[in-house]
């Protein structure tokens, strides 16, 4: 019997493992174990690349894309909200991520432009 890899199942398992790894990264980051947290983030990203699975959106903004530090607001990240976006500054390397603040935009769109 030829050994066939089940892509869909592999990817589902990869996603589950990524979630576990991000959970571990958060735990380490909260205990100020930045190096361990970074390693878990790195592992999760590699897993995603290997199985062609995207980083779940809820974790995408939780780590620094420059130095892979797991970002915890007020511990190693500064978070500012303004003009429909969130600006996250990594305090480890100084990288800045600007993320569109979708919820706010959707609300604004629903209300129409007269709201502003
Ligand atoms: Zn960084």
Structure description:
The chain is of the alpha+beta class and 116 residues long. The protein has one domain (7-115). It is built from four helices and three strands, in the order H-H-H-E-E-E-H. A three-stranded antiparallel beta sheet has the order 1-2-3. Strand 1 (77-82) and strand 2 (85-90) form a beta hairpin. It starts with 6 loop residues before the first helix and ends in a 5-residue tail after the last helix. The model has no long low-confidence stretch (mean pLDDT 87). Bound molecules: zinc ion (ZN). Zinc ion binds at residues 64, 66-67, 69, 90, 92-93, 95.
In short:
The protein is an alpha+beta fold and 116 residues long.
Provide the fold topology:
Layout lengths: L6 H24 L3 H17 L6 H4 L16 E6 L2 E6 L5 E5 L1 H10 L5
Antiparallel strand pairs: 1-2, 2-3
Helix pairs in contact: 1-2
This protein binds zinc ion (ZN).
Zinc ion binds next to loops.
Properties at a glance:
single chain, 116 residues, alpha+beta, 3-stranded antiparallel β-sheet, 4 helices, binds zinc ion
Strand content bin: 5-15%
Poorly predicted tracts of residues: none
Count of helix runs:
4
Say how many strands there are. Answer: 3
For the largest beta-sheet, the strand count, sense and barrel status come to:
3 strands, antiparallel
How far the N terminus sits from the C terminus, by CA atoms, comes to 65 Å
Mean pLDDT: 87
**Rg from alpha-carbon coordinates:** 17 Å
Tell me roughly what share of residues is in helical segments.
40-55%
* Largest sheet strand order: 1-2-3
The molecules bound to the chains, other than polymers, are: zinc ion
Counting helices, strands and paired strands, the structural category is alpha+beta
Sketch the topology as an H/E string, one letter per element: HHHEEEH
Number of structural units classed as domains: 1
Shape: flat
């Amino acid at each position: 019997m030829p050994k066939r890899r089940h892509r869909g199942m592999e990817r589902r398992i990869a996603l589950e493992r990524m979630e576990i790894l991000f959970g571990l990264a958060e735990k380490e980051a909260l205990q100020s174990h930045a190096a361990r947290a970074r390693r878990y983030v790195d592992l999760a990203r590699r897993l995603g690349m290997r199985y062609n699975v995207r980083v779940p959106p809820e974790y995408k903004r939780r780590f620094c894309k420059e130095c892979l530090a797991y970002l915890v607001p007020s511990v190693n990240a500064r978070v500012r909200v303004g003009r429909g976006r969130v600006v996250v500054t990594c305090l480890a390397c100084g990288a800045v991520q600007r993320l569109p603040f979708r919820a706010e935009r959707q609300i604004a769109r629903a209300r129409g432009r007269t709201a502003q």
